[in-house]
Amino acid sequence: MPPTTPPFDTTPIVVFGPSGAGKGTLLQKLFAEFPDRFGYSISHTTRAPRPGETHGKEYNFTSMEKFQEMVGQGAFVEWARYGSNCYGTSVKAVEEVEGRGRCCVLEIEMEGVKQVANHPTFPRPRFVFISPPSPEVLEKRLRSRGTDKEEEVLKRLEQGKKEMEFAKSGGVNPKVVVNDDLERAYKELKEWVVGKES
Ligand SMILES: Nc1ncnc2c1ncn2[C@@H]1O[C@H](COP(=O)(O)OP(=O)(O)OP(=O)(O)O)[C@@H](O)[C@H]1O
């Protein structure tokens, strides 16, 4: 699969998969190997900025009223409410990454993936699902990552099952990369993302 339009294909890439499957680990490798090729979009949020956070840098901070207005206008590729705050990726934020000549990478969860796939105007991105080799390995990785309490681990595993079912359901028909051996999985992801030229 060669790179397409000059200098390369900037069609956004949606990365999803169970928590602990290795999305962050794989993307970190990709961004490190290709520092000028990819970018994350700046999300909108209704939560207040934390000390040190700047509007337009970490997030586009916005009021709930404005956020809801944008939802009504179809301005978000995907959005969600977590607790009392809303978070979303705007079409414009994705286009800004493309405008900088970079390929926008969206690392999102299942509900967001469904919204992206069903968005009325947003062009279809490329979908890749990062799968753990097995549920047992996923559990082991989540535990050895050591970032979550027991209750959180169980919640992530439960949600992970739903993500696995969704990926198989044919809704978005993603490229599937099984993250068994990290170097092998990375090579497969890289070849799918950038082609075999690198
Ligand atoms: N191929 C692999 N073999 C062994 N361990 C791995 C592999 N890939 C990732 N890991 C480890 O598994 C854990 C989970 O990986 P990571 O944090 O990248 O997952 P994630 O999908 O980004 O999770 P989240 O959605 O919660 O951010 C980490 O401790 C990571 O170092």
UniProtKB/TrEMBL annotation:
Which superkingdom? Eukaryota
Q: What is this protein called?
A: Guanylate kinase
The protein's matches in InterPro entries, at most eight in alphabetical order, are given as: GK/Ca_channel_bsu, Guanylate_kin-like_dom, Guanylate_kinase, Guanylate_kinase_CS, P-loop_NTPase
SMART domains the UniProt entry points to: GuKc
UniProt GO BP? GDP biosynthetic process
Q: Does the keyword Endoplasmic reticulum apply?
A: no
Instruction: Identify the NCBIfam families for this entry.
Output: guanyl_kin
According to its UniProt record, this protein's enzyme class is: transferase
Could you list the residue ranges forming a coiled coil in this record?
none
Key words of the record: ATP-binding, Kinase, Nucleotide-binding, Transferase
